[in-house]
Every structure is written in C-alpha cells, then in structure tokens.
C-alpha cells in the first residue's frame, strides 16, 4: 500500500495539479507491474521472514492433512488418487495473497484511470495559469470535444483572452475565471470551459474525512452533550489544520484567569 500513498495524497489535495497526478498514475501502475515478479517477491518474502523472526511470529501456514478415502479401502486403484506435491510457504502466500492483491490494485487503476481520463486530466491542466500550456488550444481540444464545446470558437477566443490576462496576478483557475466572467460576452466558450474545469476538479476527500470523523466525536459517552458543544468539537476536528496550531498551555492559562475562585489547580 505504501507504493500508492503518494498517488493517494496527490489525488486528495485541495489544490491538486491534474497533469502531475496523471503522470503519477502512470508511474504508479508501472511500479506495481514491476513488483509482480518472482525476484521482487523473493526480496519481499525475505524481509517478511526477518521481521517475523525478530518479533517471534510464526508465519508458516498449516498444511492440509491428506488421507485416503475410506470408500476405496480394499480396492485396487489404477488412477491417481489426487495426491499433489505441496507448495512451500512462500509459494502459497505469493499465489494466494501477493499476486491477487497486486492484480486487484492494477485493475482498479486501469478502471478508474483509463487513457481517456488521463488525457482529460492533462487537458484540464491547461486551464491553470501556472501551466506552461496555459490556454493552449491544442491542449484544450480534448477537454472541449468531450463536452461538445465548439473548438473553432475556443481557438479564436484563447489568443485574445491570453493577451487580456497578461500582467495580472493569477494563482489558480478561480482567479482566471473571475477575470473572464465580466467578459463572458466576448469569451462565452472559454467561460463555459472554465466553469466545467472548476467543477470537475472538486475533491470530496476532505468532506468524506470530516464525516468519517463524526463517529469518533459522537461517542456513547457524549450522547447527552448539548448541540453547541457537539458543533464546537466537530469544528475542531474538521478544521484540524487550525486546531493543531493552538497552544494548549495558553488556553489553560486563559481558562484559569477567567475565574480566580476556582478550586481546581490547573497549573
């Protein structure tokens, strides 16, 4: 799973760079394909056994005990009775766990990021002002064609729009859209293209993490808390980047100073 962490983090970023993410998808898939080999497995299995021995963990799988069926007792069999050579522990884990996990990961990457999606991600990046292909019609054609936008109109709008935006401080697609919006009559196709670009790149990962955290907040010990306290705790969890920067010592000091008659000594 560690091989896909960089790709997972990149895809969940709020300010995701789609062109970089597309290249990372390809490189991650190639890495996983390279891991599906006997040489890589032998190295990994050696590491697994070393770690298991260090922690006194037995990783040997129990072998199935085979015996001759009672129904053929007293008979002479001229055919094989089904006895097969037992695979060693390394082969069993490789065939039943290691290779199947890699195959599932590769199939999911291929299903979610086919060539059409990768081309779309790279085309979307041409809407970003920091991209070297910013508002390049040849790069935007794939994106425009997919959403039935007139590519001829787009080509005629990109060049004057790019000149109009020169000299302006643009850091994101939102900044570009805010500059183009008052000129929507002059650049209708480009305005529509930017709207779609902003919609597609929205990531729901942050929202999903916030909802997943609610089960850790609303525990059975907090079922009787008032709504305002629950809201405040949820806000601290959702805005973790800000809450983690709070100096707890200063909070305790401020809380202590609010009432001089407290019987609990906090510090």
From TrEMBL:
A molecular function GO annotation: protein dimerization activity
Residue stretches making up the HAT C-terminal dimerisation domain: 186-242
Source taxon at top rank: Eukaryota
SUPFAM superfamilies xrefs: Ribonuclease H-like
A Pfam family assignment: Dimer_Tnp_hAT
Name of the protein: HAT C-terminal dimerisation domain-containing protein
């Amino acid at each position: 799973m560690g091989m896909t962490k960089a790709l997972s983090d990149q895809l969940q970023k709020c300010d995701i760079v789609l062109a970089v993410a597309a290249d990372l998808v390809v490189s991650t898939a190639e890495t996983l394909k390279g891991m599906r080999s006997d040489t890589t497995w032998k190295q990994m299995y050696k590491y697994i056994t070393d770690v298991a021995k260090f922690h006194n963990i037995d990783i040997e799988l129990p072998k199935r005990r085979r015996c001759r069926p009672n129904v053929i007792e007293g008979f002479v069999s001229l055919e094989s009775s089904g006895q097969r050579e037992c695979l060693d522990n390394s082969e069993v884990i490789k065939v039943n766990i290691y290779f199947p996990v890699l195959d599932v990961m590769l199939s999911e990457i291929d299903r979610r990021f086919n060539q059409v999606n990768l081309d779309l991600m790279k085309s979307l990046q041409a809407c970003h002002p920091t991209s070297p292909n910013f508002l390049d019609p040849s790069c935007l054609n794939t994106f425009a064609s997919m959403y039935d936008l007139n590519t001829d109109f787009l080509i005629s709008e990109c060049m004057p729009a790019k000149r109009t935006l020169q000299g302006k401080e643009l850091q994101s697609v939102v900044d570009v859209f805010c500059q183009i919006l008052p000129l929507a009559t002059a650049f209708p196709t480009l305005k529509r293209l930017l709207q779609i670009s902003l919609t597609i790149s929205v990531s729901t990962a942050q929202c999903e993490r916030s909802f997943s955290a609610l089960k850790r907040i609303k525990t059975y010990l907090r079922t009787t808390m008032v709504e305002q306290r629950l809201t405040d705790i949820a806000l601290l969890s959702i805005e973790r980047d800000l809450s983690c920067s709070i100096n707890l010592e200063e909070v305790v000091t401020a809380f202590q100073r609010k009432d001089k008659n407290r019987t609990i000594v906090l510090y």
